[in-house]
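User: Hey, my collaborator sent me this sequence without any context and asked if I could get a structure. I don't really work with proteins. Can you help?
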Amino acid sequence: MKRIKAIYPGSFDPPTNGHFDLIERGSKIFDELVVAILRNPEKDPLFTVADRRKMLESMTAALDNVTVDTFDGLTVDYALRVGAQAILRGIRAISDYEYELQMALMNRKLQPGLETVFMMPAAKYSYLSSRLVREVAQLGGPIDCLVPEIVGQKLREKIDVAHKFGNEQTAVSKASQGKNKLRKRKA
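Assistant: No problem. I've predicted the 3D structure and written it out in structure-token form, which is a compact way to encode the shape of the chain:
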């Protein structure tokens, strides 16, 4: 009996409940599922690759056939390296489909034996993206219904540090502006 191994590639910055939904459902379809975090030097991530890996490992600890890994370069090359026969991808909207279809066709051109399997998210996660989660968190909105608990905790820590740093920078900037005004008055 042939065992089917799939990869679920993405940036996962941060991992969301929508990601976990696909991971959990994908783990029931494939014999082995590798959640593969792309190291993309062109993006400015909120979390380091190591942080994202720890969060995903925590989220998937109860799923025996799921592992977490990191990669860079072409997804098809990584899939070959780990012996995967399929790529799992989520599609939320028509705009996702157009992009994902292009990627799937290119991947098929590069590696004809590698299949792409598209899954729709659960309806309650159909609007959810990492970008939206980051924006809601940065603006102080509620995120508990959007991300697993471990991710929410890490997001709050990260945002609190950024706000404190921003406030310190603002205070330094204001103090510097005040000194400049005094100098101009004395001159």
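In plain terms: The helical segments are 17-29, 49-59, 75-82, 94-110, 130-138, 149-186. You can pass these tokens on to your collaborator as they are.
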